[in-house]
Amino acid sequence: MAEIKAFRALRFDTAVAGKIDELVCPPYDIISEEQRQAYLNENENNIIRLELPRGENPYADAQATLKKWIDTGVLKQDEKDSIYIYEEEFTAYGVKNKFKGCITRVKLEEFSKGIVLPHEETLSKAKKDRFELMKATNCNFSQIYSLYMDEKHTIRNTLDRLSAGKPEIELTDNDGVTHRLWIVTDEAEISAICKEFDDKKLYIADGHHRYETALNYRNYCHENKIGDGGEDYVMMMLVDMEHEGLVVFPTHRIVRDLESFDAEKAEKLCEEYFYVEKKLSYETIEKDLRTLYDMGKKAYGFYSGGNGYTLLTFKDSDVLEKLLPDMFLHFAHSLPTRKRPYCNHFPMLLYILCFLDMHNKLLPLQSQLQRLFLLLYTMLWFLIFYSLKFPPYLQNLCFPIVLISGLDQIHLFVAVLGLK
After folding, report:
1. What's the pLDDT score for residue 124?
2. How far, CA to CA in Å, does 33 sit from each of 22, 40, 53, 174, 306?
3. I need a surface site. Which of 162, 263, 275, 366 has the fewest CB within 10 A?
4. DSSP notation for 116-167
């Protein structure tokens, strides 16, 4: 599955470059030109000079800046191959959260192999920009963000143990997010972490353009017979998918310049799949969506100007699967292999007790041996159904289970309800 490696990172020498909190910036694709200039005004060595170069020859300028920073000691390469443990601490909805992962090199794999998996489409313009930057600098200036499944949380526990001490770097950015970094150089620890990923798939959460660009850059290097093998890897931040510190925020999308757009007509068309409800103030949109989310419902806020907005709540939460079957089929096939707790042990026990109670009423059992046999026989059937890994589109359906008693020849049909 995933192959990861330690690497020797280029890092700022703050004695030369300046304060670390003046040297960092957000992802390149969310920075305005005004923000970019503000970062440079604070410190000319801000990483944005490499991450988002501007001017007539931006990529050549980034290449020249990188060389200058290395030559003058602004950037220094770590002496040992390392894995970098990274933590973010932030506040969301009034609750403080933090999550932790590791930054490593990950071997590039085609999506078709099912080792590294995407969840969104990409745009060619963004990929061309990142490709030209990578070709000029031969560097990854920001890591791709990916998730992995680890039921026993072995990797996470290891990272927590290795980051128990004081971090090498700690800073709080302009958004109030605290960032911490620990550096692992012990070869045995690194080897153990790498081995844990041997059976893991990686799910890209953010960085699809950069990943596809890295694939293109690898192919470019191979075709032109250049590179030293480093082009076969890309820098990634890897986080346990079940980390309790992860928070998923609503997605905002703005659609502009639609010809002959009619908001009322669009809302009318939505009535086929949504409950459509007019709201007086757009200021309640976040609260309204949170309330529905807590109720287990899927909803959207539709705003087309003015003070109010329209709340769209799905009538059938499975409608997207019906409308986009190919996407859901791909997602189902790419799900990690693991037990899914469609029913837990408590309801299973209740079903067994109900089965025994009905059996006693229909035909009283004469001995403890018969009772024990029937109990074990029944539990076996429930364990079989419990362990089956049904695909996602069968969730929330009722599965008729036929339990045939070899002892009594009584046929009992039990409908298992409420599977989640």
Report:
1. 77
2. 17, 11, 11, 17, 29
3. 366
4. EE--S---HHHHHHHHHHHHHH---SS-EEEEE--TT-HHHHHHHHHTSS--
Cβ neighbours for 224, distance < 8 A, ≥ 6 positions apart: none
Strand, coil or helix: 90: strand
CB burial readout 237-258, b (16+ within 10 A) else e:
bbbbeebebeeeeeeeeeeeee
Helix (H) or strand (E) run with residue 417 in it: none
| pLDDT tens by residue, 76-94 | 999 999 999 999 999 998 8
Per-residue pLDDT of 237-295, as tens digits, reads 999 999 999 988 878 888 888 888 999 999 999 999 999 999 999 999 989 998 998 88
Cα angle 110, 236, 191 (rounded to 5 degrees) comes to 95
Q: How far apart are the first and last CA of the chain?
A: 29
Distance CA 269, CA 248 (A): 28
Task: Place 178 in a pLDDT band, splitting at 50, 70 and 90.
Answer: very high
> What count of Cα atoms within 13 Å lies in the side-chain half-sphere of residue 223?
6
Q: Are 418 and 395 in contact (CB under 8 A)?
A: no
**Pairing verdict, β 169-172 and 178-184:** antiparallel
Burial of 92 (0-12, 13-18, 19+ CB in 10 A): exposed
380 or 91, greater pLDDT: 91
Which residues are paired to 314 by β-bridges?
274
* Helices 124-137 & 58-72 angle (0-180, nearest 10): 40
Report the alpha-carbon distance of residue 236 to residue 4 in Å, rounded. 9
Identify the pLDDT of residue 72.
Answer: 97
Give the residue ranges of DSSP H helices in 31-146. 33-42, 48-51, 58-72, 124-137
Sign of the Cα pseudo-torsion (91, 92, 97, 102, in order)? negative
Task: List residues bridging with 309 in a β-sheet.
Answer: 279
Taking alpha carbons only, the member of 299, 298, 302, 301 closest to residue 264 is 302
Phi/psi of residue 205, nearest 5 degrees? -90, -40
Sign of torsion, CA 163 166 169 170? Answer: positive
Percent of the chain with pLDDT strictly greater than 70: 77
What length does the chain have?
A: 420
